[in-house]
Protein 1
Amino acid sequence: MADPGVEQRAALLAAASVFPLPDGARFSYGTAGFRAEGSTMAPAVCRAGIVAALRSLKLGGASVGLVITASHNPVGDNGVKIVDADGGMMSQAWEPFSDALANAPSPEALVELVLQFAKDEGITLGGGPSAQVLLARDTRPTGEYLLDAAVKGINAIIGATALDMGILTTPQLHWMVRSKNKSLKASEEDYFTQVTESFRHLLELVPDDKYGDELNKKLIVDGANGIGGLKLEEIKTKLTGLHIHVKNSGKEGEGILNESCGADFVQKEKVLPLGFGPEDIDVRCASFDGDADRLVYFRITSPGNTTIDLVDGDKILSLFVLFIREQLDAINGKDNQENKVLPTRFGVVQTAYANGASTEFLKNLGLEVAFTSTGVKYLHKKALEYDIGIYFEANGHGTVLFSDEFISRLESLTTKLSSIATGSAQHQAALRLLATSQLINQAVGDALSGMLLVEAVLQHKRWSFQNWCDLYTDLPSKQLKVKVKDRTSIVTTDAERRVCQPSGLQELIDTEVANYCHGRCFVRPSGTEDVVRVYAEASTMEACDILAKSVAQHVERILGYP
Ligand SMILES: CC(=O)N[C@H]1[C@@H](OP(=O)(O)O)O[C@H](CO)[C@@H](O)[C@@H]1O
Ligand SMILES: [Mg+2]
């Protein structure tokens, strides 16, 4: 019989030789996987395929995922990220290996890296359990070509199978991987059924059905000309109680992916997206990003003006917090501190980019607010520590996580209440929490299911968009990007809110901040772009502009121009 090691070596060599690394190319598994100009991505994607197959082997053959997307970035870019068996982001412990593999200078070096890593991790190659990788891509033109590169990488690990799930939103693939490994229904149709059914269920639980204001049922969605718009078009007729009109839907000829539209554009520019105009004044509008894992809301207020009222991730989080708190209070009794029917550790997770007014609002509610570094992988991990953990980035990526243990307590309570107190306020509140856990994606932030939860909560509270805006007033904020020689020479601490290197920079920031009322400012190297990001907050927009600019100048001077 042939030595499995020889066969494995040959397969890896063959795959790596198809997509050699061009001279000077350098990939880094940043905040959200590898990203670059789409046509240059094949070597990194093929190698990510190898990593994904190894990851599945390591996890005893559990399914893992691989998504080809560059999210909100321009249509010419593309990227790849790996989904772990629990549906979350790939374990950070595997990032250094992924980096090393993506940058292996030759097919031979790649083979050595794989063999050594497999040995270190106790992964049996060429035998052992079979591996499975579920694949998806967004609507980018380079997607199909890169999918082929990923499949070649996966197939280079003997015993690994690639399963193409098609063109999907990023959160759909995360959901499928999680569901599959929990032996739950995991097809796209199952996803749609779960989302539409739990949404319908939540609407049925709206206290009484007098919510007749047609304007409040009308929603216009900016699909960023991407996959989220297309999927929403597919299911919108099944969403009873809501009249959805999709613009920038991703249909042929409607516009270019993410170009002057989508959640990233709307949140950063604070202007209306392409395709929207005076006809949409005062209607509630939502915006997805290119792979539909970010969601923001907005409203156009006057005809001659492109500025909007923005509801960002922080305010979506605040709305969800109020809704969940209301249900917990209905179950436990508002003032009952002891002997609670359903003891719940409820935690909120934000990053330094959360608007200071939102953090204050949440703390004033008596909630525990934790801070992590930027990037869903950090927020999600922290949120998992609670019975109900809720996280959002200001840019609109976030979700509400319910622990398995909490869900089983909640289910027992619901069963008990349905026999002794059916239809009671307590029973209804428990059912609402259960439906919420079914609706909102438990694997990752999901614009589509997040939007439906927003819509259900607004109907539940009988809130207009204005009521929602009025929760608190955002402090003016400003973000700048600074190009420097080596952004990695900035090292931060305290959830990226303070700089520890280069020395002296933090003191300069502190001195600038001290000049402003409600002043706050921090700098950090981006994990997705070759820039240092500067964030400033203060009581007026003018003050923000000056604060951000002066700190950016310090950064430029200390780190040097590129
Ligand atoms: C300020 C900001 O919006 N940063 C974004 C951006 O990360 P950076 O590391 O800042 O480039 O892209 C990430 C991935 O989409 C997202 O998680 C994060 O919130
Ligand atoms: Mg995205």
Protein 2
Amino acid sequence: MVASCLLWPQLAYAMARWSQDSYGVEKRNLLIDSAIAGMWVPLLHFNLLPSVVLVTVTTFDKLSSGMRRLWLASLPGLFGAAALVTLLLRPPLQLESSLLVVICTLPLLVVHTLSSSIASYRLIRTVSRQNKMLELLRRTDAQTGLFAREHWQTQADAALQRFHATAQPACLLMIDVDHFKSINDSFGHLAGDQVIAQVGELIRNTVRAEDCAGRFGGDEFAVLCQNLVIADASPIAERIRAQPLTLRLPDHPTLRLSSSIGLAAAKPGYTNLQAWMAAADAALYAAKQQGRNQVVNVPLAALP
Ligand SMILES: Nc1nc2c(ncn2[C@@H]2O[C@H](COP(=O)(O)OP(=O)(O)OP(=O)(O)O)[C@@H](O)[C@H]2O)c(=O)[nH]1
């Protein structure tokens, strides 16, 4: 009793803790656990309550370990040990449990159930926290901390649907760093990466809390201004355009930056996000054609 209840758990823990192959040792320890439980069934004279509790608890441990089919692998050891001890000692059969046996079995039942429930609760909390973290990472562009393209598009799509349903205005800004390729060529790719990170930060610090700023890929960014008509979104676009002009990288003091921005308000003619983005892209293209470092609105006359 002392060996299996007090010594074996300590020994099993120490072996798993100090082994190079902790997983393999722990798996083997769990199988030995089952064999020890099986050994106890004849030693308890097959007394129904403690025997069933012992076998159930031991098998539950194999299932809750998460190791594939471990519970199945533990059965030969469990029944084998029970059969061996039965053959060697030929214990009498005493199925009925006295009140004393019931009382002595209860702590195992209660402690095991509670500790398993607490372990499951903690595991579920950890998994749910990690899922939230994964979702956040999926939504975020690692280089800038802005929303990643897919999440930004989902938000913009929802804003366009709202506009169609309730006429709640929204504006879309497509932003592109000017001559970014020559920044890469002249100052190196690392400097280009720093520029992307800094421009992302400038955009994040310039937009309102309810706006949705995302990185579209490369040196292209997009901002969704919710609940704003074009006249109110224009100053935000102008502020975003002005910010990179003042940006200085300590490692590259001669580097100068500017950006071009295309601005398009949601309109009934934009039946899907692609149409809205194409309009903002056309305005961005016009800004590039007209000399860069400027904001171009989709002209009212050109609106569908
Ligand atoms: N450093 C860096 N470069 C990138 C990254 N993603 C894309 N690029 C480069 O960015 C450049 C994009 O250039 P474009 O936007 O097409 O052209 P541009 O030089 O900015 O010229 P305009 O847009 O016409 O002003 C390409 O050379 C890409 O290889 C990135 O994450 N880091």
